[in-house]
């Protein structure tokens, strides 16, 4: 009996030993390396190391996440109305969504990019494109608010956009769909040779970031898919991938996939800029909106512009070349040195990398293979730097870590592949869950990437999260790329379709973040800077309520003399001068949204009372211990009554 | 000029530092204020430690019915005049007087400073206890009496969710060192006087 017990114990201990051995071998990265959870854990009260600005895709918004935690901090409304912040609902921001097609309260936000100084991200502004109704927006990173939107005329499907040159000279807006320029009523089958593609170069004012379309390059009618600026040695050039060089107009999946090679269009924008500065190009009638938000008046104005300068590439010899690139390239990515231009042929088995130096040499030696509508085509072999052989299926986008490595996403094989620039050898591959589109390394579109993490943005998540009906969350994944091998650290859900992202160290933005708006700087035409100045003014059938908020009351809180059929404007100024104390307000039956008013800011909403009665309004943002008491009433009398206009706050009721 | 008179001269000038630096600082800490609210008390003014702090202190304090911190108080007129007069007296003494007058100035300054502190205490007491009867929130002490919200004259104290700190600043140091220096001038003057008598 004893022996049995002994041998059992012996056997058990051997088993235990083996099991523990097995456990130990699983974490083969050594006792000192920390777990993935520890690497993404940001303790309560601590801050993340990086900001990530992840586009909201079809939500039309831009979301702000922290890395490495993957925590969502804010959704910045850009092209879509947002009831949470009254963006596009209040009178101040409605003009931001004005276009030549009227008020367009939605767009498809694709590629955010952070402004740069001397080739390094500077954390001043984020630019992002609206793909559907072509627009470029600028977001000010002191306030995290959209402060400018410019519509892009002669453009359709503003996709190869919005990438910024290395001193933020230009943000580019290339059209995905070619269209008749100017637009006209014509048969679609006559596309070939008649449709054109506009590549718009929008200058950025170095001081205020104000945007202005400097010129549009009117290119042959291909689809201009993605783009990237040259940098370092290739600064002054811009590269655009094309597909549908077949110029097909129907059943595109077949008819636009016939040519073995499409092109990367290389544009020497410095050369064209010089031409334009000397009076080159022609002014062409065009209608497009330019919407600017002014921080002093807390209001946007929309100006309709009437013409745009267009440039025919043939007028500037030597400014535009086509680099043949295998079959329907999608991503177009330039490495930090500016030497390599990666064209990801999404239907090709290989990754093609062009050499900027070789391109210049080919141009110099006039080694031209042919032309497309008069634009010279260089020889594929003359510009080829190398090929990454069969790295995966469906290459889309490439980012760089600044240490000589490139990371490419593969949509079909659903993975990120790390490879070496120059040797073109594959170093590592990691699966994505699932179907990855873009990826982002903070500072990836600059000369100085912060190559610690890569974020992969996936199109499909299936079983990765708790199900939420037929639509499950969109997602991003965070990989540690500080070592030789990539390590998946974190899954985190995202809004909309996370399309592309831009990231930078938090320290670039944090110290400049605005805490409040100074009341004394408030130049809003309907601002009320203290309670004593609150009033209600009737002007015909329009009533202006000059209202203030402070913890925990509105002034005035009792208003009488409003009539059915009036247009009542609530102009509400938040008198707080304390960080993080917004107030909200809304009125029963208002056909707009609440207002969310920052300290020192004035916002306005319209209310059109349709029924008599005494109707309440209240604070919508929990502001203080007495938030629930922060309320008031408007008495609405019949249209023909003569109830006098009256308003009060805190008067004795006796 | 004798050494004691030079020290007295410096002693008389030092309180003028009150015109350059704040006398006192009151700080209010709470979890909701990771950057604490604070106000400086100068010889002739209240000022914010961070922009809008006094406005935000007022906003907090109105919940318990405290009055708004006024833009100015009568003391802001009296105190500067007092300091200028005592400095002038001190300077006259430094030039004309002997060591016994130094003691007189020392005592005068102690009395006036104590009176100033007492006045400050009264003001604080009134501010912390004379509450609006329609106050939104009313708190009582364990013994049933109405809770006061007086910040400490000197030191730190918990007031509801706030921790209040009240400490002298550089201006007060100038005043204190000036007063102390006048006493030192007195001691030195006395010692020298004895020596000269025995000689």
UniProtKB/TrEMBL annotation, chain A:
Gene Ontology MF terms in the entry: nitrous-oxide reductase activity
Compartmental location: Cell envelope
Source superkingdom: Bacteria
Assigned EC number: 1.7.2.4
N-terminal signal peptide: 1-24
Keywords, sorted A to Z: Copper, Metal-binding, Oxidoreductase, Signal
Coiled coil start-end: none
Family matches, as InterPro entries: Copper_CuA (IPR001505), Cupredoxin (IPR008972), N2O_reductase_N (IPR011045), Nitrous_oxide_Rdtase_Sec-dep (IPR026468), Nos_propeller (IPR041114), NosZ/Cyto_c_oxidase_sub2 (IPR051403), WD40/YVTN_repeat-like_dom_sf (IPR015943)
Pfam families referenced in this protein's UniProt entry, alphabetically: nos_propeller
PANTHER family reported in the protein's UniProt record: CYTOCHROME C OXIDASE SUBUNIT II, NITROUS-OXIDE REDUCTASE
Protein name (Swiss-Prot/TrEMBL): Sec-dependent nitrous-oxide reductase
Native source organism of the sequence: Flavivirga spongiicola
Gene: nosZ
UniProtKB/TrEMBL annotation, chain B:
UniProtKB keywords: Membrane, Transmembrane, Transmembrane helix
Transmembrane segments: 76-95, 102-123, 170-189
Superkingdom in the source lineage: Bacteria
Protein name, per record: Copper chaperone NosL
Species of origin: Flavivirga spongiicola
């Amino acid at each position: 009996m004893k022996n049995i017990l002994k041998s059992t114990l012996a056997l058990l201990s051997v088993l235990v030993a083996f099991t523990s051995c097995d456990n130990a071998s699983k974490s083969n990265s050594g006792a000192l390396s920390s777990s993935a959870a520890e690497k993404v854990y940001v303790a309560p009260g601590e801050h993340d190391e990086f900001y990530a600005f992840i586009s909201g895709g079809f939500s039309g918004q831009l979301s702000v996440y922290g890395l490495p935690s993957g925590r969502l901090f804010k959704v910045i409304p850009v092209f879509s109305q947002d009831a949470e912040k009254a963006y596009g609902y209040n009178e101040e921001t409605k003009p931001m969504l004005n276009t030549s097609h009227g008020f367009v309260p939605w767009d498809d936000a694709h590629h955010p990019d952070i402004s740069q100084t001397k080739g390094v991200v500077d954390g001043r502004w984020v630019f992002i494109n609206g793909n559907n109704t072509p627009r470029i927006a600028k977001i000010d990173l002191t306030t995290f608010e959209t402060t400018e939107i410019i519509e892009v005329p002669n453009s359709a499907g503003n996709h190869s956009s919005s990438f910024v040159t290395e001193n933020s000279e230009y943000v580019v807006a290339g059209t995905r769909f070619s269209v008749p320029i100017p637009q006209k009523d014509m048969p679609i089958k006559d596309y070939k040779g008649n449709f054109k593609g506009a590549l718009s170069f929008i200058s950025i004012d170095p001081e205020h970031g104000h945007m202005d379309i400097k010129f549009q390059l009117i290119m042959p009618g291909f689809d201009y898919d993605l783009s990237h600026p040259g940098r370092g040695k290739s600064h002054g050039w811009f590269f655009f991938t094309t597909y549908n060089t077949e110029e097909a107009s129907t059943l595109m999946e077949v008819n636009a996939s016939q040519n073995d090679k499409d092109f990367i269009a290389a544009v020497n924008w410095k050369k064209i800029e010089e031409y334009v500065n000397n009076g080159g190009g022609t002014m062409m009638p065009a209608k497009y909106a330019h919407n600017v938000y002014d921080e002093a008046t807390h209001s946007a104005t929309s100006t309709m512009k009437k013409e745009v300068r267009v440039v025919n590439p043939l007028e500037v010899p030597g400014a535009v070349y086509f680099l043949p690139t295998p079959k329907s390239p999608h991503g177009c990515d330039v490495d930090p040195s500016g030497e390599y231009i990666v064209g990801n042929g999404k239907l090709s088995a290989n990754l093609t990398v062009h050499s900027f130096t070789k391109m210049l040499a080919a141009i110099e030696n006039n080694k031209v293979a042919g032309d497309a509508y008069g634009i010279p085509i260089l020889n594929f072999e003359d510009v080829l730097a190398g090929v990454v052989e069969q790295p995966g299926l469906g290459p889309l986008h490439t980012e760089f870590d600044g240490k000589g490595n490139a990371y490419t996403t593969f949509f079909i094989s659903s993975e990120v592949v790390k490879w070496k620039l120059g040797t073109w050898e594959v170093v590592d591959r990691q699966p994505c869950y699932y179907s990855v589109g873009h990826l982002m390394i903070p500072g990836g579109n600059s000369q100085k990437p912060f190559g610690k993490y890569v974020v992969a943005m996936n199109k499909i998540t299936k079983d990765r999260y708790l199900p939420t009906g037929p639509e499950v969350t969109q997602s991003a994944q965070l990989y540690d790329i500080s070592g030789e091998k990539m390590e998946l650290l974190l899954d985190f859900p995202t809004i909309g379709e996370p399309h592309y992202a831009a990231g930078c160290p938090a320290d670039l933005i944090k110290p400049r973040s605005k805490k409040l708006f100074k009341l004394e700087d408030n130049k809003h035409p309907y601002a009320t800077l203290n309670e004593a100045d609150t009033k209600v003014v009737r002007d015909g059938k329009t009533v202006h309520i000059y209202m203030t908020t402070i913890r925990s009351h509105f002034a005035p809180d009792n208003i009488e003399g409003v009539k059915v059929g009036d247009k009542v404007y609530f102009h509400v100024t938040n008198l707080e001068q304390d960080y993080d104390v917004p107030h909200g307000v809304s009125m029963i039956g208002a056909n707009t949204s609440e207002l969310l008013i920052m300290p020192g800011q004035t916002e306005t909403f319209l209310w059109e009372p349709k029924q008599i009665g005494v109707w309440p309004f209240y604070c919508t943002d929990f502001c203080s211990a007495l938030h629930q008491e922060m309320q008031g009433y408007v008495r609405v009398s019949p249209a023909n009554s003569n109830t006098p206009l009256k308003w009060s706050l805190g008067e004795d009721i006796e | 000029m004798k050494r004691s008179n030079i020290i007295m001269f410096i002693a008389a000038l030092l309180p003028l530092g009150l015109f350059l630096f704040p006398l006192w600082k009151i700080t209010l800490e709470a979890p909701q204020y990771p950057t604490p609210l604070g106000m400086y008390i100068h010889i002739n003014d209240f000022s914010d430690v961070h922009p809008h702090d006094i406005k935000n202190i007022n906003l907090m304090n109105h919940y318990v019915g405290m009055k708004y911190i006024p833009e100015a108080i009568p003391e802001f007129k009296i105190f500067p005049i007092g300091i200028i007069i005592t400095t002038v007296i001190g300077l006259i003494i430094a030039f004309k007087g002997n060591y016994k007058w130094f003691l007189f100035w020392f005592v005068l300054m102690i009395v006036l400073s104590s009176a100033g502190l007492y006045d400050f205490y009264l003001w604080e007491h009134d501010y912390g206890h004379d509450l609006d009867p329609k106050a939104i929130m009313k708190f009582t002490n364990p013994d049933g009496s109405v809770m006061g919200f007086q910040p400490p004259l000197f030191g730190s104290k918990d007031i509801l969710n706030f921790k209040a700190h009240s400490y002298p600043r550089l201006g007060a140091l100038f005043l204190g060192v000036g007063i102390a220096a006048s006493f030192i001038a007195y001691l030195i003057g006395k010692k020298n006087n004895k020596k000269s008598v025995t000689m």
